[in-house]
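#lab-general

N.A. 3:47 PM
ok so I finally got the sequence cleaned up, no stray characters, all 223 residues accounted for. can someone with queue access submit it? mine expired

B.Y. 3:52 PM
send it over

N.A. 3:53 PM
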Amino acid sequence: MSERMYGYARVSTREQREDRQVAAMREFGVEDSRIVVEKQSGKDFERPKYKKLVGALRSGDILVVKSIDRLGRNYKEILEQWGHLTKQRGVAIVVLDMPLLDTREGRDLTGTLIADIVLQLLSYVAQTERELIRQRQAEGIAAAKENGVRFGRARIPMPEDFVQWAQDWWHGRVTAVQASRALGISRTTFTRRAEEWGSCQGRTDPPKRRAARLRAAPEGGTR
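B.Y. 4:20 PM
back already:
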């Protein structure tokens, strides 16, 4: 039974184009009818078209990809998938952008060994790079926080008369519900921002805490 050659092209979003991947496979000799295009993230191998393609592959077939990252982004899973296809299923893999990653028949044992070593090296480099990126991100966030940079959603600007309502709330002249309705914001937002404002003014006993303490006090204890 003669070998069959399939191509697998992948892009992460529908807006991205797969033209260059498909063109490279055609030039390599893959028939259009055997080129599978999938528009899905490469974070894992749970991709319908890829799984269907792998299920159709048989021993002696060749799977062609433009670059190793088109196969996937998780190098640990790529190593597992590579070993499953090449060693257990007898499928050859050709990575067009990296001639060393070519496991077709006719390559000697040294060539196959080199392909495995290169893949292991790529996996190590990718993992190291991910760790460095996480470390730089953590260091950048820590430095930004030290400089007063806030992260998360942009804060809602408060109406001009917010301070007056916050003062009245702290003095117990209005409730959070009354103030939030007058300002046109949610009660939760008003309470949080009023407490922040009060803390900046050196206040440490917001109305809801005073009310809770009074409710918990024994009868006659506040006289």
